[in-house]
Design brief:
- This protein is an alpha+beta fold.
- The protein is built from nine helices and four strands.
- The protein has a four-stranded antiparallel sheet, covered by helices on one side.
- The protein is elongated and about 75 Å long.
- The N terminus is likely disordered.
Amino acid sequence: MTARTGATQSAHPERPGRSDGVCNEFTVFTEIKPGHADAMRQDLAMLADATNDERVHAALRQIGTLHDARHVIFDNDTRHMFASVFDGSWDTYIDDFAQTDVGDRFDKVFSHTEGFPGVKDPGVKDWFVSHQEPAGVFVSSYPDLTVQQVWKDQRVSEAFQAVLDTPEFRAALDNPANAELMATPAFQKLLEEASA
């Protein structure tokens, strides 16, 4: 007997999509319900406006694995594509959306597509698998960095830049007692990278 967690097991053991390092791609193609393209377009416009909403950014921080995402309406308003790049497990990625405000917005957009059961529905993973197509090629500019690492690198860079901009740091650079440290290749590389 296998222990089960709260996650729903899929009837499809395979999870389509390509990976590059820690980054995974997710691309879904759906049929738009007849007469729903304009309503979907309006919901996408509201979603685009919501990207300035702090709740959306808080939800994305809560998910913590989404690098980027996009929706496209195409084929004369009959088809929809959702594509994203994420870190970690496919199942966890889908589960995480259902737990945030992003999931509610996701439901609103996907409600205009044929057969979408809702992001909280136990069958949603099977629905996604049946509509997912792996990319022919998938390449990440930073395949070894998770979203969490990118955010940390940004925080460290901002903090380091703040130190570089202080009079105390300038004074430390001019202090002869620090000449040996500043002459090391590691310190020189650090300054070089900071000024790039």
